[in-house]
Specification:
With 207 residues, this protein is an alpha+beta fold. The protein has a domain of 143 residues. It has 5 helices and 7 strands, in the order E-E-E-E-H-E-E-H-E-H-H-H. The strands form 2 sheets. It has a 5-stranded mixed beta sheet. The chain has a two-stranded antiparallel sheet with strand order 1-2. A hairpin with a 2-residue loop joins strand 5 and strand 6. The protein is globular. It starts with a strand and ends in an 11-residue tail after the last helix.
Length: 207
């Protein structure tokens, strides 16, 4: 399996940075579809939430040797800046990566989301082709409660995913401000901290 590590959002190429990952089928324990459902505030003062449903191709590895992948994703996320920037130009913030670590041996690739374009072919077609070579696991799903019912910790985790996985800084800031009871300025500062953070394999997430 060959996986493109560059996001569709990238308009330029990062020089000398590895941008494609190769996985031997023997390294893959299973593949499957995972769906995440959640809500965010529609606007800073609106009461009607925006409902989201994201579909991911989930890849369970037979090992947890993913340090090289983590390094490659961070190289793409934070490309080196030129020695001098043109007047008025600001440094590029952390880029969005299509590959998401759930834990050290479980990867997700964003496939369909309201935050951005869908990947072709359809998920069912991709899984049908992969079934010849690897085990296809039953689909899984995680439904978060309405954003008003999230704890501050749960809202912060979701906001971090909105930034790292989807690059949706607006939705992340609105969620932090409303769900955590902080000012918009404080929420924007926290979003910038998320953008500046590197990609690391995270803990196992509940479903």
């Amino acid at each position: 399996m060959w996986i493109n590590l560059c996001s569709y959002r990238d308009r330029d190429v990062v020089p000398d940075a590895p941008s494609v990952m190769h996985l031997d089928y023997a390294e893959i324990a299973s593949v499957g579809q995972h769906t995440e459902s959640y809500s965010t505030p529609s606007r800073p003062t609106a009461d009607t939430p925006t409902e989201w449903r994201d579909k991911f191709l989930e890849i369970e590895l037979t090992h947890d040797q993913t340090e090289e992948l983590k390094a490659a994703l961070n190289d793409l996320r934070f490309p080196p800046l030129p020695a001098e920037l043109p007047n008025g130009q600001v440094p590029i913030r952390g880029r969005v990566s299509p590959v998401w670590f759930v834990n050290r041996s479980l990867l997700r690739i964003g496939w369909v989301s309201g935050h951005g374009p869908a990947i072709a072919p359809r998920m069912a077609t991709a899984l049908a082709r992969l079934e010849t070579w690897v085990r296809v696991a039953p689909p899984t799903r995680r439904e978060r409660p309405n954003w008003r019912k999230l704890t501050p910790e749960e809202a912060t985790d979701l906001a971090r995913e909105l930034v790292h996985v989807h690059g949706d800084t607006f939705a992340a800031a609105a969620l932090l401000s409303r769900a955590c009871g902080i000012s918009h300025g404080e929420a924007s500062t926290q979003v910038r901290q998320f953008e500046a953070a590197g990609i690391v394999p995270g803990p196992i997430q509940p479903r």
